Amino acid sequence: MKNYTLIALSLFSFVVLLSSCGSDDDPPIENPEEIITDVTLTFTPTGGGSAITATAKDPDGDGPQDLEVVSAINLQASTTYTLTITLLNAIENEDVTEEIEDESDDHLFFFAWTGNIFTNPSGNGNADNRADPVNYNDEDTGGLPLGLSTEWTTGDASSGNTFRVVLKHQPKLKTSTSTVNDGESDIDLTWDINIQ
Amino acid sequence: MTKKRKYTIQRSAIAIILFITTVNFSYAQNKDCVKDCSCEITGTILDQSDKKPIAFASVSIKGNAKGTVSNENGFFRISGLCSDEVDLVISFIGYKSIEHHHDIYHEDPQILLAHEDLILESIVVEGTKIESGLTSITESKLDAQELENLNTETFGDVLRSFTGVATIKTGQNVVKPVIHGLHSNRILIINNGLRHENQNWGVEHAPEIDVSLANDITLIKGAASVKYGPDALGGVIIVKPKFPELNNPLRGNFKITGKSNGRSLGSSVSLLKGYDRWAWMVQASGTYQGDLKSPDYYLTNTGTREYSFALGTKYHKKDLDVNFYFSRFNQELGILRGSVTGNLNDLAFALTNEPPEGTQSFSYDINNPHQEAVHQLFKIDGHYNLHSSSIDFQYGFQINQRREFDIRRGTNNSLPAINLELFSHSVDLDWNHPKLGQWSGVIGFQWLYQDNRNIPGTNTIPFIPNFDNTRLGIYFVESRQLGEMTAEVGIRLDAQQTAVRGRDFNNNLFTNDFSYQNVTGTVGMSLPVGPNASFQSNLGTAWRPPNVSELYSFGKHQFILEYGLWRFFENQADVITENERSVPSEVGVKWVNTYSFQNENVALELTGYINVLKNYIYTKPAGVTTTVRGAFPYFIYNQTNALFIGLDASASLSHSKQWESEARVSLLNAKDVKNDQYFVGIPPYELNYNLHYKPQTFWKFRNVQLGLESQYTFKQTRAPRVITVQEINDAKTNDIDLFAADDSDFDFLPPSDGYFLINTHLNFSYNKFDVHFQVKNLLNTSYRDYTDRLRYFSDDVGRNFVLSLKYRL
Predict the structure, then answer these.
(1) Among B20, B34, B40, B553, which is 20 to 30 Å from A70 by CA?
(2) pLDDT of residue B310
């Protein structure tokens, strides 16, 4: 019996010792680098003039609130624009655009629009068919398009159409024929677009 | 793929039930027999090869004139002993003699004598015992021999051999057992005497247990919370390691297994030796597996690596046993590349795209997504014999580390998205008290302390917060004889205190301290019905406090968003506490009835159960939100009342000495009774029929067995509605709230079709070698399992040839 008491006592003191060093520290702050909260489209007329911007903001990230601002895109008829896309993580105040540039080999922007509103590129974009025309100004290290910068010439005045931008993350999947269905969607946003 | 090599499990169950009488007998011996020289030893002597009883074998006691011979059933009894510990010597002409140190407080020994002309040694197995300590609770067991041919499978798949156990999977590598429709936090796994403490909350977190380290596995189908504590709502799985016996010569084996599907190679080694007063055991195993293959394509990134190591010692002194055990299990599991989706449109494409995206030719590489888990277990336990009573004590320490890697951008791709470390300490004390009048039983105490930490550096806000958990439980279980019937009753009291520290999506700190307590009870009876049958009935309550993930999880989980009970309030993402929303514990009442019958040719077991769960925690769709990544449905945790009703039946029939049939069926109906709806992922009905041919000896081969196993799994008809991605997108575009009128659960796809699988196997022994050959999914059937999350993306595994070779020392 003595033996047992001794064992039990030593066990207990061991346990108490171990548990008393449990940490109740606060969890350290993590930088959620991958979240994109703000997407801005900037249409700059190539012939000069003021740029037109359209944004989408989702300040709560994966929270249940819808996108806060998706302003419509209002372009001039028969005008050529350079579209640049910037991505921001507002929680970390971090420019995600640079990260996409650094990883251009794994990323590709797709575009889709309704109403044949552009004369160049014509059609409805390459989201439904990769071979459809989109005028990419940039490319990755392998010579494949990226899409942070693109060129657009508007047609006649119109309204009530939409303009969709999809950024796909295609690690080891990006090829000259990879489609909007390959890889994971980092961005999938649709704006209303008016040509005035 | 199927893992159905069903052996005659119900036989073991029946053996256990019939064993009750013997156990009652040992209860009767509970007084101090040393004082009045009334100690008694009983046991059985069998032929090791065919397990048939040996009559007229001699049993003597060293240093004592007393002795006896076995009767025609191999049974022997020596009474009138003045000592409760003896050295038995068992011998019989033509067989190898054996010595065994035995005390009467251990289970009855089963002595397996080996023929003199065999290379095998005679061995002693200390008899079957009732794991739960409750004779009224239905138990089934996979013994060492049955487990032998199963132990190269995942833990979950092995458990599927039990009638009433299904699996919930994330592909072939991540398999969790489901007992009577309940899984994860609602069942309890006792590994080596300790509650297996891991990140149990996720469907994609399988228990980190290496079956090749196990000696036997017992399933308890009742709500055995009284004995084991919270979480045992559906049942309890008890995994026992190989453990060394005293006075045993060096035993051991080396096993090597190859499988065609996944081109895997596995091996394991175990060594055991027992001396007079102590014994040791050491084991190691490893598996290296590449991509699995469905009938039509490779399942890219489904390789695995597993390594395990275990060490155990036993020390015996008069009246005292002390055991020490350490084990370590490392796992690296690849997850199908094509199962990764970004938003709902990606999901919609993946649902129709076959073969899945990213499918390549065979490779051993494991890329993202994948999981790495390490589970370490340390324990010291013992048994102290006070003659009229005894004490069991145990201290356990477990470290569970889990890292999960997703496909991420840039350098984050090499960082784990989830990196958790869980430390658990536990102390258990049981006092098997002296008989009080007609009552015998146990009074027990349990203490648990847990520390769960997120390891910094994931670059994501942790999905679950850090927490500390302290839990205390005290209980008693008593039983007595009422005529032929054994009646049992037990009560338990638990209290738990939790301290939580986490960060919300803006990195703001939140903390909370809260506690839960509960009283659980059990009453039951077991009754022999004639010489060949018995009836058991048990009504037990069980409880579990809400898991930290159910309270605090927040964000994207697979292809939906999920918000915990204390993270979403009045349509806002907000950290709240019990003051705003009280979250009572889940409480269950399970009633299990079993009728068993066994004679020479027929074995039958019927188990019917009803499980009523109050405050059952589940997720329900609450809306669709748009993010930069696109639209997502979001689910919130909620509580309801649930009803699970089911039937397990198994029967085996010996047609002749060599031919045997076995049929099994498990039926389960589950419903949310508060909202009158079905749950997602309830296992469908299943039927099995197996045919075995056992010629035993064939030419120079022994233990020859040939088997054909078939399994039909029905389509689940009791499933929630289907809402397609298109319907969600359309509703969002048209600004319609899909869940305003009906917030019942939904699935993106209807349940999988029923499927039929056939396996076959051949076992034989030659010399010191055991050979096991098996073909799984013989017809190379393409199928998808309703309870496999990867059914959205790919077919299950195709045909698989398995060959293992074991050398016995």
Answers:
(1) B553
(2) 96
**Alpha carbons B17 and B597: distance in angstroms, whole number:** 10
User: In this predicted model, what pLDDT tens digit does every residue of B518-552 receive, in sequence order?
Assistant: 999 999 999 999 889 999 999 999 999 999 999 99
Report the C-alpha gap between B191 and B181 in whole angstroms: 21
Per DSSP, the three-state class of B669 is: strand
What is the 3-class SS of B471-495, one letter each residue?
EEEEEEEEEEEECCEEEEEEEEEEE
The answer for A 133-162 residues in CB contact with B (under 8 A) is: none
Residue with structure tokens 């005028």? A135
CB proximity B341 to A under 8 Å: yes
Judge contact between B666 and B626, C-beta under 8 A: no
Give me the residues of B, 567-626, that contact A with CB < 8 A. Answer: 568, 571-573, 622-623, 625-626
Number of domains forming the structure of chain B: 2
pTM of the model: 0.87
Q: Give the pairing of strands B370-385 and B320-334.
A: antiparallel
Give the residue ranges of chain B where pLDDT is below 50. 1-29
Q: How far apart are the first and last CA of chain A?
A: 96
In-domain check, residue B337: yes
Q: Calculate the dihedral angle through the C-alpha atoms of A115, A117, A119, A123, rounding to the nearest 10 degrees.
A: -30
Across the interface, whether the CB atoms of A30 and B499 are under 8 A apart is answered no
Of A4, A62, A187, the CB nearest to B505: A62
**SS3 assignment, position B187:** strand
By the CB < 8 Å criterion, does B349 face chain A? Answer: yes
Cβ distance of B342 and A11 shorter than 8 Å: no
Q: How many residues does chain B have?
A: 809
Mind telling me how many Å the CA of A21 is from chain B's nearest CA? 10
Chain A residue numbers with beta carbons less than 8 Å from the beta carbon of B501 are: 24-27
Tokens of B312: 């155990």
Q: Is a pLDDT exceeding 50 seen at residue A1?
A: no
pLDDT score of B507: 85
User: Final residue of a domain: which of B71, B104, B126?
Assistant: B126
Q: Does residue B727 belong to any structural domain of this protein?
A: yes
Cα distance between residue B177 and residue B190, in whole Å? 13
Shortest Cα–Cα distance, B777 to chain A (Å)? 32
Angle at A62 between CA A56 and CA A63, to 5 degrees: 95
H helices of B150-200, in order, are: 155-159
**The last residue of a domain, from among B81, B97, B126:** B126
Q: Domain range for residue B616?
A: 240-808
State whether residue B564 sits within 8 Å of chain A by CB.
no
Q: Give the C-alpha separation, B337 to B370, whole Å.
A: 9
Burial class (CB in 10 A: 0-12, 13-18, 19+), B478: middle
Query: Listing from the earlier edge strand, what are the strands of the sheet with B98-103?
Result: B67-69, B58-61, B85-91, B98-103
| Domain-embedded: residue B726 | yes
Handedness of CA B350, B353, B355, B361 (dihedral sign): negative
- Distance separating alpha carbons of residues B307 and B113, to the nearest angstrom: 34
Contact A185, B345 (CB under 8 A): yes
What is the predicted pLDDT for the residue at B422?
96
Instruction: Answer whether A59 touches B (CB < 8 Å).
Output: no
Close Cβ partners of A164 (under 8 Å, ≥ 6 residues apart): A111, A112, A113, A125, A127, A188, A189, A190, A191
Whether B61 contacts B11, CB under 8 Å: no
Q: Could you give the residue ranges of the DSSP H alpha helices within B624-724? A: none
Buried b (16+ CB within 10 A) or exposed e, B565-594: bbbbeeeebebbbeeeeebebbbbbbbbbb
Q: Do B509 and A26 touch (CB under 8 A)?
A: yes
Which residue, B407, B234, B503, is CA-closest to A61? B503
Contact A58, B628 (CB under 8 A): yes
